[in-house]
Amino acid sequence: MVSYSWVSVIALLGYLFLFLAFASAKKTRVINSFLLLLLILIFWSGGSFMMRIRFWPSVNFWHYVSIAGIMMVPYGFYRFYLDFLEEKQKGRRKLWFLFFLSCFIVNWFTQIFIPTPEIVTGTDGHVKFIYCYGWPIYLLALAVVVLLAEIIQLFFKYCKGDVLTFRQLRPILIGILIVAVGNVASTAKIFSGIPVDIISGMLFAYFLFYALYKKKMFKLTVLIAPTNCYVIALVISALLFQNMFLPLKTWMEKRLGMGESAALLFIAMLMVGLIYFLVIVMKKFLDNLFVKEEQVQAQTIKDFSHTVSQTLKKEEILSSLVEVILKMIEVDRVYVFIQNADNAYVMEQTASPLEKRGFLLPEDHPLIQYLRSHDQCLLIEDFKRTNSYHSMWEAEKRQFEDWGVACIAPMKDNSELVGVIMLSEKRKGRAYSYDDMSLLLSVNSVCSMAVKNSRLYEQAYNEARRDELTRLFNRKRFYEVIQEQFEGCHECSLALVMINVDDFKLYNQLYGAKEGDLALKKIASIIDAATADRGIAFRMVGKEFSILLPSYDIYSAKVLAESISDQVRSMNEQTSLYKMKTLTLSCGVCASPYMASSAEELIANADLAVYSAKRFGKNAVVMYSDDVKAQDNEQEKNRKVSYYDTYASTIYALTAAIDTKDHYTFGHSQNVAYYAAELAREIGMNEEFMDIVKEAGLLHDIGKIGVREDILNKPGRLSAEEYEIMKGHVENAIGIIRHLPSLDYVIPAVLSHHERYDGRGYPRGIAGEDIPVMGRILCVVDSFDAMISKRSYKKAMPVEQALRVLEEERFGQFDPKLADVFIRMVREEKIEIRLMAPESP
Amino acid sequence: MGEKKMRFQEKLRRYSKSEIWEEYCGFLDMTMEEYMNMQKRLVAEEIKLWCGSELGKRILNGKCPGTLEEFRAMVPLTTYDDYADILLRKETTSLPEEPVLWIQTTWEGGMYPMKMAPYTKSMLDTYKRNVMACFILATGKERGDFDISVTDHMLYALAPLPYATGLLPLLLHDEIDIEYLPPVKEAVHMSFQERNAKGFKMGLKKGIEYFFGLGSVTYFVSKSLSALQEGGKGSLAGKLNQISPKMMLRYVSARKRCRQEERELLPRDLFTLKGFMCAGTDNWCYKDELEEMWGIRPMEIFAGTEPTCVGTEAWSRSGMYFFPDACFYEFIPENEMYRNLDDPSYVPRTYLMDELTAGEKYEIVVTVLKGGAFARYRVGDVYRCLGNGCREDGTKIPRFSYIDRVPWVIDIAGFTRITEKSIRHAIELSGLKIEDWFAVKEYTKENRPQLHMYVELRRDCISGAALGREILKEHLSVYVKYVDDDYKDLKKILGMDPLNITVVKCGTFEKYESVYGCKIRKINPPACEVADFVALQSARGPLWKGGSYGEL
Questions:
Q1: Which of A548, A651, B18, B366 has CA 20 to 30 A from A626's CA?
Q2: Which CATH class is domain B420-550?
Q3: For residue A290, what is the DSSP state?
Q4: CA-to-CA distance for A547 and A568, rounded, in angstroms?
Q5: A380 vs chain B: nearest CA distance in angstroms?
Q6: What is the pLDDT of residues A767-809, one digit of tens each?
Q7: Which residues in chain B (34-53) have CB-CB distances under 8 A to chain A?
Q8: Which residue of chain A has the CA closest to B6?
Q9: Which member of A161, A380, A391 has the closest CB to residue B42?
């Protein structure tokens, strides 16, 4: 190696090293530009080196390679500089590229700027390359000066009042200065033959590298890419080979007496082994130096991933998460917030068990909004500089300060923000590094999936423990919770309220299952709202509910039950069209340790109290006591008295009133009552139902009291207007009955006896099963009796013909099942046909 | 967290310009929705704090608003009277949050001579950040641009503590070590004239990069520089030995240039301002001339004792934007404001920032955030909404121009708060036989504000007393100065004598009432009514008045 060619070698190796390192780095515009610049520098120094060793094919060829490099350096640097400043300037980029390319092409043909060097062999045998520049080189220099002026102008533009940018650009500026000095110096005679331009180029590249490093545009570990290990090993081996080959060969031939070919073979094998050994040693060494920590991190994340994949319990997942963070990052306080069912983020895990949990960040919290639109970790210092931080409450800011939050990491599953992790400052005030934040994002990514899975599991778990209709916990959950609470409540009290809706079967029969379900939902929501977070509400079965109240004494539980009872009683008051039956509750209250020593005893006693309430006339809250138990045994058996009897006189008075106005209606009502009760019996209804439908039959046309007599007794067809008035008798009936709360249970039947099965009836136009069954019964028997009766405006229809009409109107006016049953009853003479006497004039 | 907060000048070293700009002026990039979300979120905290305080409970009178809608429905529009007893006694325990500072201002026409306003720590932090935003915007030419350096100097023409304007240098000092001319510690012991002279003298040595003051004051200070080119004591030529060589060079070349252009020396010939901010009322009267004098258009900001620093213009200088984190803003439309003026029992409707109509005038109502004491407070200023955003500024939030104080207050050049009560008091004290009067704020041909009083003398004293216009003016000036300290400063500081008197024919007020069926408003009646009034003295035909005709 002669004529300072070692300088070119070192430069070349340096550029290669950087090039290979950055080739494996994450590509950005500026990194790409740096790679291009390195490539140009490799052309420059590589060409120069090859030329100096007069490598094949010719000195001229390598000279032009080197010139291509040197002439494109200004462009390469200009491009890098613009990208570093994130300046676009597409037009100017193209202009300078074409200019320097043209200079190179012109020089290729004319050698006007940089002529081919003169090769001079010195007396000592060393070869020197002497360049004889002419004045045109200054033209080229002038162009470079213009380019530099543009660069400096940009420098001032960006650095004016911006200290940070100045600091970032400072190494680049120094690099430019060095390369400019180097190139000017290379034209001076004193440096004749010394490649100061290459030395300056090398320093220039390293200053650019430093600028990129300062701007944190790559990770330093890219320098230890495997390719670099191979290149370094190769270079060391090549140097050893060059220096050791001849002495070793001579030594082997002379001392060991080996033949030339054997020695060559041995040396070749030795070199292969040496290269292999060097690669391994270097890799180990560099791994230990730089990569070990990364490997440990990777292993930790792997272990964490394995751990969390083994469990579906959120507490365990979050506990592992905090553990791994504490292990990998020098931090003392960690707060984990997880999204709950209401989309708020609740603090569920902390590094210290002494920290108060449960703090809540609502869905519209500025931090949450910010993290939803950003995927990276967020340093609090950066967050403080955003509008989102300025939207935070001062109290929240103080809370964050109390926690010492320094870094916030989003926990995302794809774009969904599953949770948020907040970390306090690192120990000894160290700053959070790029690696810390990468690690946080990695563990968060693993954790987010696990948390999401656990939430799904939790959801399914809860679904299995919730009642579908009311969304309260179900019976299964009740038995789980009562055991848990009882075991956890050794030192404190635990109250149980059992709630039973009174006469709910009747309610269902009166208004249909749909209304019944609606009522249950309303009751459940009353119970849930009253319980709030003081206890847990359950729907045990059908019309039974219960409330578990930890730390409640028996008296407080009774007060709560009474409050619920009051609310349920007034629940149906708001119904506008008609007054629905008032629902009442029978509640039993018991509490441990006062009146029960086990969960089973607690349930049994509360149940007993409910029965006691039922027996004493329902609509009551009964506290379990020894008296309740005693009374249980002494109850009269025949206490049940049909309360319908109580109302018989009222019903009689009303029907008598209509008789005075319209005698036909009175008789018709009695017939309808009879047929309805019989039909109800036939379809398997109980006595209670039969009584109600009978009374509904008596009262179903009570509204006709309000219709003018001339319309009621009109001999011909009613006009449209009169028909409308006539239709109003249904609402009239409700208007009368609603003032008699004791008879309100007949309202649904009365209200719906003119509804048609196909939905074309009045007043509500409801259809099918939505019409209460009593209404459907009355509809069949009312029509039948009307058809077979003689009225002032029509003759009586024969029974058989009336039955045919019933058959034809199945699915039309009548419920098909009820019509069929009634037709069968008439045909089988299971029912007595009551024909009314002709009307008196 | 918990450590000392980073100062602005440290941020200059650590962050890029665009990052710093984003931090302080990022609110300009907000959409209307984002702006309102921030407003509503912050007011929710204030509602909680204010309603829980003794002060809030007393005004609410047992009501307990939970939401913003309830808050607006339950809290009445307030004035300082509603707070006076608690705030003047500095009852800190009755406030939403403990204040760290009390700022005072004059309360013209109020129960007491002074008003006190509490400032909490959070309010001051927000104030500081918003003042820095003003500072950044004042020096910028486009989005993301500003030019602030630690080595800069500020000529500061505002009153010191305990007035609100005295807070600004304190807050700025917390962020950056720029030098005040003269230093704040010395300035508090100086008279206004001394401060200006000293500041200018120091400016000649060190240079002036920023200038901040009331519009009228900056104009007065700038104007006084023109006296420098005249010889004599105190002239610039006489101070040549005290100025830096750089300034001397500038001076020499400026004189040459001025001779060539045949004009007087202007401040811009000597100083290159980076930023120029002005506050107060009537700024529009001075802006053009100030721009001519300094070579940079002043940027208007809006700050007050009660609301803190609430608004700023941006680089285009084409309207103010309100800071979303200083106060929660409501706006009373002009017609509602007048309806309430005529019938104080009428409760005017208020609108939020996203409900305003471009081109309409509104009286501003603020709820001071961050533990502030004032809720739904009528500051007494009227703005015109210029529309949502500005293409030049690239903004999407509403832009406003400052119009003036509310019509029942006359503010001359940001100094006075003249009300009906104060003029009546002055007239009573003067003993002048004035039958009736009204006062209007008007602008002279030179665009200078003046207080124009229309006075009718008693018939019985016309022949018996010397009551010429000049005598009346002299008398009334003396007593207006007596009842309004700030009015005194107009003469003392700015050399202004803004009182103009018109003596009207005897019986004009009575005639006006008989013709138009109502009395003319005492303070700032609408221009058309003033024209009707003036015409009454001579005209005989029908006069236009508010859309209907009246017969003489």
A1: A548
A2: alpha beta
A3: I
A4: 15
A5: 8
A6: 888 888 888 999 999 999 988 888 777 788 888 999 999 999 9
A7: 34, 37-38, 41-42, 44-45
A8: A381
A9: A391
